[in-house]
Design goal:
Blueprint: H1 15-44, H2 51-68, H3 72-95, H4 104-108, H5 110-132, E1 146-147, E2 150-151, H6 155-181, H7 189-213, H8 224-246, H9 254-258
Antiparallel strand pairs: 1-2
C-alpha cells in the first residue's frame, strides 16, 4: 500500500501497519528463499526455479525496480531480489544442460533460451505496466489511490495481478519440475516452507486483509479469476510438498549420478 494513498474515514489507519508486517514477512522470507535456492542450485549443479518462471520473476523484478516502484523501500526490495536472482540465473545458465541430457539441443542453448524468455517477459511486463499507469487513461482507477501525483492510479492492483500470475506459473511449473525429476535436486523443505509462507503472507493474506478493511479499493481480490488463481497456486504448492516428501533425498549432482 502506497504512502500516498488517502484512506477514507471508515478505514482504520492500522491497515498500513498490518500491510507493512505482512509485506515485510513476505519480503524477508523470499529474500532468504532466493539465497537458499541459489546455494542449493550450485551445490546440486542444477537450477532450482523452472526456467520460464525464473525469467518471469527476474523480469518482474527488473520492471518494478526500474519503472513501477515509486517509494524507496519498494525500489530497494525489488533491486535486492533482482541482484540475488543473479545467482539463480548463473546456476541455470551454467548447469542447465545437466537437466536436458535427453534434449542436447536445448541443453546447449539454455543461456540463449533464457535470454529470449527474459527479454519477452520484460517487454510484456513493461507493456502491461505502462498501459496500467497511463496518467491520461489509467486502468481501473480508484478513489483514494494515487501514483506519482496522479489521483486514481492503483499500482497495488497492478502488483497483485502480475505477482499472482507469476505465483501461479511458479507453483505449477515447480510441481511439474519435481515430478519430472523425481528427486529433490535444487530443493529442500526449508526452501519450500519459505516460499509458501512468503507467498501466503505477502500476497494472499496481505491483499485479503486490505480487501476486508477497504473493500472499495480492493474488490479485485474476490473476482472469480483471482480466486481460481489463488486456489491454484496454493494447491500446487501443497502438492509440491507431498511430492517432495516422497521423492528420494538426492544430494549428488546430475553428473555424478550419471557416472
Amino acid at each position: 500500500m502506497a504512502r500516498s494513498d488517502v484512506l477514507p474515514p471508515h478505514v482504520d489507519p492500522s491497515i498500513r501497519e498490518v500491510n507493512d508486517v505482512l509485506l515485510g514477512t513476505g519480503g524477508i522470507t523470499y529474500t532468504i528463499c532466493y539465497v537458499l535456492m541459489a546455494r542449493q542450485s550450485i551445490r546440486d549443479r542444477t537450477y532450482s526455479m523452472p526456467l520460464f518462471s525464473l525469467a518471469f520473476n527476474f523480469a518482474w523484478e527488473i520492471v518494478f525496480a526500474l519503472y513501477v516502484a515509486e517509494e524507496p523501500r519498494e525500489k530497494t526490495m525489488f533491486t535486492m531480489w533482482m541482484l540475488i536472482d543473479l545467482g539463480l540465473v548463473y546456476a541455470a545458465v551454467k548447469y542447465g544442460a545437466n537437466e536436458w541430457k535427453h534434449a542436447p539441443a536445448v541443453g546447449r542453448s539454455v543461456g540463449k533460451i533464457f535470454a529470449g524468455m527474459l527479454a519477452w517477459w520484460c517487454i510484456a511486463l513493461y507493456a502491461v505496466s505502462s498501459w496500467w499507469v497511463d496518467p491520461v487513461n489509467p486502468v481501473n482507477p480508484k478513489v483514494g489511490k494515487a501514483y506519482r501525483g496522479v489521483k486514481g492510479i492503483d499500482t497495488d492492483e497492478l502488483g497483485f495481478m502480475t505477482a499472482l500470475v507469476a505465483q501461479v506459473v511458479l507453483s505449477v511449473m515447480s510441481l511439474a519440475q519435481i515430478m519430472v525429476r523425481q528427486s529433490s535436486r535444487g530443493s529442500s523443505y526449508t526452501i519450500w516452507a519459505l516460499r509458501f509462507i512468503g507467498s501466503l503472507a505477502g500476497l494472499t493474506l496481505n491483499y485479503g486483509y486490505c480487501w476486508w478493511v477497504w473493500p472499495e479499493a480492493h474488490g479485485y481480490y474476490t473476482t472469480p479469476v483471482n480466486i481460481v488463481m489463488m486456489v491454484t497456486w496454493i494447491l500446487a504448492d501443497l502438492g509440491y510438498f507431498v511430492v517432495l516428501c516422497k521423492v528420494p533425498r538426492v544430494h549428488n549432482t546430475v553428473e555424478d549420478k550419471s557416472k
